[in-house]
Structure formats: structure tokens, C-alpha cells
Design brief:
This protein has helices spanning 2-10, 21-33, 65-75, 80-87, 129-134, and strands at residues 44-50, 91-98, 109-111. The chain has five helices and three strands, in the order H-H-E-H-H-E-E-H. It is elongated and about 50 Å long. The chain is α/β, with parallel strands linked by helices.
Length: 136
């Protein structure tokens, strides 16, 4: 089965391996499902959002304020990821893993905030040990 599935993937009109990890993932899913035409049932696309302290040192193209604005855009169905999710019939969930903002409760939002952003690793550790271990 695995060899037949790999042949099916390789015979698509593309250079061998051109889709990188997606080809490996298709092979893995097909092997698990024992199918030459694997399908995803109830897929969920998860976006993790957090602020990085290094952004305050001027190395980012955008200030931290953009992070929470983008999350709000995701929650209000206004971003490219929302279109992608709908086109492919994926449920969408957003994880607040450390955005420097307090969001209202929303069914699409998973509150898993470690902190209100990290510290800049130029002058500190980005997170302390407790924060690192908090959500493992």
C-alpha cells in the first residue's frame, strides 16, 4: 500500500518532492488510513498568536499592536486564513499564546496565554522556566 501511494504522489504533474512536507504528510495519512485516496475528516486549522519582545527593539516590520489587530481580524472573518479555511472546509481556531492584549470571549479563540508577550532576547531570556513549562 505504501509503495502504491508513493507512486501515486510521485506521478502527479510536478517535480518529484516539489510539495515537500505536504507529500510526506499525504503519505503518512494515506498509510494510516490504508487508502490511495486519503481524506481528512473534520479538519481544524489552528493559528497560534503571540507577541515577541524583540519587536520592541526595531527588528520587526510591524509593531506589536499589529498582532492583536490581526487576531481580531481572524475572529471577525476578515483575513486570508478565513478564506483559505472556508475554501477547504476547515474549522478555524486561534490560540492566544501570548498576545499583549485582552480579548473578549469568542468561540474561535482558545485562551492559552503564557504572558503578555515575551521579553526581548537581546537583553533577557524571552521566557522564564515557569513560563516555558506552563503549557507543555
Amino acid at each position: 500500500m505504501k509503495n502504491k501511494l508513493q507512486q501515486k504522489i510521485d506521478s502527479k504533474t510536478k517535480p518529484l518532492g516539489a510539495l515537500g512536507i505536504l507529500e510526506k504528510l499525504a503519505l503518512q495519512i494515506g498509510t494510516i488510513q490504508e487508502s490511495l485516496s486519503p481524506t481528512l475528516r473534520n479538519p481544524v486549522l489552528i493559528v497560534f498568536a503571540g507577541d515577541h519582545g524583540i519587536a520592541k527593539d526595531g527588528v520587526s516590520a510591524y509593531p506589536q499592536e499589529v498582532t492583536y489587530q490581526m487576531v481580531l481580524n481572524f475572529l471577525n472573518d476578515g483575513a486570508a486564513i478565513n478564506v483559505f479555511s472556508k475554501q477547504h472546509n476547515f474549522d478555524l481556531r486561534i490560540v492566544d499564546a501570548g498576545v499583549n492584549f485582552d480579548f473578549d470571549t469568542d468561540d474561535l479563540l482558545i485562551d492559552n496565554k503564557v504572558s503578555y508577550g515575551t521579553k526581548s532576547f537581546l537583553s533577557n531570556k524571552a521566557m522564564n522556566s515557569d513560563q516555558l513549562q506552563m503549557h507543555r
